[in-house]
Every structure is written in structure tokens, then in C-alpha cells.
Amino acid sequence: MLGAEVRVHLTFFFLILFILMTDPLQLTPAGVARSAGLAALIFAAVGLHELGHMVVAKRSGSRVRGVLLLPLGGLSILDPHEQFETVKDPVRETRIAFAGPLVSMALALASGAVFLSMAPAAELWAKPVITGKALVRSFFWVNTLLFGLNLLPAVPLDGGRVLRAWLTQRMDFQLASRRAVTIGNVFASGFMLAGAFWSSTWLIVLGLFMFMGAQMEGRTLMFQSMVESVNIEDIMLTHFSTLSPADTLEDALNQAVHSLQDDFPVVRGSDLVGVINRQTIVERLRQEGNGYVQSAMNKAFEIATRNESLMSAFRKLTGRGLTLIPVVDEERLVGIVTLQNLMHSMGLLFEFCNLVIVFW
After folding, report:
1. Do 303 and 325 touch, CB atoms closer than 8 A?
2. DSSP character string of 192-243
3. pLDDT for 20-34, tens place per residue?
């Protein structure tokens, strides 16, 4: 969808089961088909809602890399640098955030007009308002709820993203995210308590979905913030082996076996002249026999400084399909970052975020 990877969260499948369980009479072939149709309409409403965000984000200069669809909306995944730049501009974030509710409002008006042309106005308010037995009416109410709910200032809803953007103008990004997530949890708890008080299963489920979305949003934002704030010098390898352009490929493979190092900077004197990895060494030996590192090394490599962020290193590695980035300081090689140790460090940060989010 507009070049972004779209994934559906597991809660959509729970939603189908919930629809079936709320009406035992639906447990027939026709009932199951109607329930699946209702779930498909909810999916379509959420997808179009999120498409509105993506179109406005693209026109604002931001590219959405991925979308995770939830029953209440979606979590858009931008490049972390673009994410922070967007959050720092509350007007831009507001414009992108409210694009989704406006799409939902337009869909609600259109489906409401279609329904009223087929049935009396009183039937639009018949209960249950969302049911597989009246799909057009249900589509109207699903979009109406998506519009109304996403105006609430609670993460992961659109209003919560606007709130976070404005809070970021007055405090640290992580603190602003924490406050927005906390408010989201308060709203989620309120819906669940109201559902228990009025015996409304739909309100309880709505609160659960909000709570799960708030946790995911908070975890994602904290992870992105930490990846941007941690410097390469904190995770780079300082004890490593180097190769010379004059080394033979057999010598290089022998060093790779004994050092358990897969990626090597190639140094001539004090100058960094290339990089090479074990896979390239093995492939050249198989195809051409023994030769020199100079003929097999990659001369088109990226370098980084010790003060760059982990996300900067990740973009350089993945953007060009590299496995090694030499780290230099005043033109002197001081360390290396490999894709393996970078992913390991990012994995540890993600696990840390999972632990921290519990205590928010």
C-alpha cells in the first residue's frame, strides 16, 4: 500500500472470534459468512483510515515504511529520523494524524446516506448497531466510532499522537511519550470499567485493544528513541583483526577461522583501503583459487564516526547491503561495527524497552 509493508495484528483474528461468540445464532454457515463479512468491513475501514494518514504523510515529505493494522486503527512505521522530525513539528503531526479521522467521517457519511436510501432513519439506530446481519449499517457505525475514538487524546489513537507532539514542545520526547501512553492507559481502563459496569462486552474489548495498542506504541517509540540516542562507540568492537591487501586469500581464511571474525577491514600502513568478509574469501577461493586480498576486497565501503547513532549505522549497513562499517576518529581506525553485533545490540535494547514499558 503506497510502497509500505502492511501487516495485520493478531487482534483482528480475536475480533472475528469475538463477533461469533457474542451471537450464538451466528454459528451457522450463513452466520459465519456474515461475521467474516463484518470483520472484512472493519478491516477495510481501518485500512482506508490508515491510507489517509499515509497519503498526507507522503505529501508532507515523510515515507511510511510499514503499517501494523489494529481494530482501532494502525501503527505507522516511519524512518526513526523522520519520526522524530515529524513529532517535533506539531502542526505537521496534527495534519497527518487527523487525515485518518477525516477519511472515516467521509466513509460514515457515504455509508449512512446509502443506508438511509434503503431503510427508514429509525433503523439506523437499531441495536446492536454493529452486527453481521446489517453490514451497511455496521459500516456506518464502525467508521463513526473510528472517527470519534481517534479524536481522543490517548495513544495509540490519533488524538494521542497529536497530544504527544505538543507535549514534545515542552519536555523530553521520552517523557512526552510516557505521558501520552499513560493517558492512553487511563482511557483504556475507563472503557473496561464502564464495560463491566454496564455489562457491555464491546466496551471491555475496546479497552483491551486500546491498552494493547498503547503498550505497542510506547515500546516502539522508546526503542526508536534509544536507538537514536546510543552512539556507535558504545557498541563498536575495539579488539579486531585486520588484513593487508598483500595477504593471500588462504592466509585471510586461516585468520578468519582462528579469530572467529567474519568481517575484516583491509589496511595498508595506516590507511583504510577496503573491507572483505569470510563469504567473499571462500567464494573467490572456490572460483579462482588462491589470490590476493586486494583483488577481492570491496573498495566501495561506508565509514562512521564514534559519535554517530546506532540508527545511522543501521541505515548505512542495510541501505547498501554491507556487513561491516569501519569506525574512524581523525582518519584513524578505532573500531568496527558488524551487522551481527549491531543487530545483537539492537535486540538487547528492544528487550530493555520491553522491561521498562512494564513500569511506565
Report:
1. yes
2. HHHHHHTT-HHHHHHHHHHHHHHHHHHHHHHHHHHHHHSBGGGT-B-S---B
3. 666 555 557 777 777
